[in-house]
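Running low. Invent one:
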Amino acid sequence: MMDRQIGSGAAMFDVANPLLADGQKAAFALARMQGQALRAVMEYQMEALSFLRHRYEQDLRLFDDIAGTDELKDVMQVYNRFCESAVKEYAQEAVKLAGMTKNGALEATQATAPRRN
C-alpha cells in the first residue's frame, strides 16, 4: 500500500505546491488560448458579415442600374463594371483576412507564452 506521506498537514502541501502552481499556469494559458481563438472567430465573422452586407448592397445597386438602362450595350457596360468591382473587392477581402489570420496567430502566440513573475 502507498499510504506514505511526506510530512503532515501544511507541510504535505508544500511538496505539491510547485506542481499545483505549474498546473494552474497551464490552465490559465489554455484559457487565454481559448479566449484568443474565440476572439479571432468573432472578428472573422464580423468582418465577413460586413463584407457580405456591402456586396449585397452592390447587388441591389446592379439591379437598379440595369433597370435604368435603355440599350443592351449599356447593360453590358453596367454588368462589366459590376464584375470588375466584385473581383477587385473579393481579392482585397482575401488579403484583409490573410492579415487578420497572421495577426491572430501572433497574438495567440504572445498570449499563451509563459509569463514571467
